[in-house]
Amino acid sequence: MRHRIYVHVTWTTRGRELLIDDRIARFLRRFLCTVAQQERARVIEIGIVKSHLHLFLRLHPSTSIPRLLQRFKGGSATLANREGHAEHCERKWAKGALGKARSE
Fold first, then answer.
1. Distance between CA atoms of 78 and 1, rounded to whole angstroms?
2. Close Cβ partners of 29 (under 8 Å, ≥ 6 residues apart)
3. What does the pLDDT profile of the chain (104 residues) look like in tens digits?
4. Residue 72 structural domain
């Protein structure tokens, strides 16, 4: 039997500050898709606005959701700051994430 696990995850910038510009959004799209693939997940849809983002993912049953989210949030903030994608201020995400899962 083939499993299909779908997850909708959203998280915000720290303090809901308007920190996500077009440059950061392009970086996030590339980064999040790469990390998802490494963690045996697939990004089906990404929605990004200035203060938060939404991801609709398909997960493999062995995918560790806490590890995936840590890599998404921690990895993207660290890399964006280190590589200079964050020109005017340091990128920080709010603590925690909201998500809903559905399996078929």
1. 39
2. 46, 48
3. 578 899 999 998 888 888 888 988 999 999 999 999 999 999 999 999 999 999 999 999 999 999 999 999 888 887 777 776 665 555 566 666 554 555 55
4. 5-103
In this structure, what CATH number is given to the domain that contains residue 75? 3.30.70.1290
Output the DSSP codes for 4-30: -EEEEEEEEBGGG-----HHHHHHHHH
- The angle formed by the CA atoms of residues 7, 27 and 63, to the nearest 5 degrees, is 30
Residue 79 tokens read as 């890399």
Task: Transcribe 46-78 into DSSP letters.
Answer: EEE-SSEEEEEEEE-TT--HHHHHHIIIIIHHH
What is the pTM for the complete model shown?
0.79
Number of domains in the chain: 1
